[in-house]
Amino acid sequence: MNRSHVIDSKLSLDLCAPIAESSRMTIVQPYQIYVERRDAARNMARYYSMQISMSLLGEACLTRRWGRIGSHGQMMVHHFAREEEAVKLFLELTRSKRQRGYRPRM
């Protein structure tokens, strides 16, 4: 633990720097979706979910999860500098899944 009064680095934790203005991004509205695709004739039961959230570094993150219903499935996280880019991909993927037969769980 550094108890000296001399600051030995510009990155020192002892430095009392003012908190930056609140220019951090915030999610304007929540973006999340959970859809399923079932076809008993093909023994198909799949899910697909997406969510946009903010990372600790202030980046917009689009988290996607998919797989067979009842399994852990797979996950992918996309990082974006701007929320608009994450929303654009979110909407494109939602449109694509709807065209492939995914529907909200009833």
TrEMBL record:
UniProt-listed SUPFAM superfamilies: WGR domain-like (SSF142921)
All copies of domain WGR, residue ranges: 30-106
Keyword Iron carried by entry: no
Gene3D superfamilies named among the record's database cross-references: WGR domain (2.20.140.10)
InterPro entries: WGR_dom_sf, WGR_domain, YehF/YfeS-like_WGR
Signal peptide: none
UniProt entry keywords in alphabetical sequence: Plasmid
Protein name per its UniProtKB record: WGR domain-containing protein
Organism: Ensifer adhaerens (Sinorhizobium morelense)
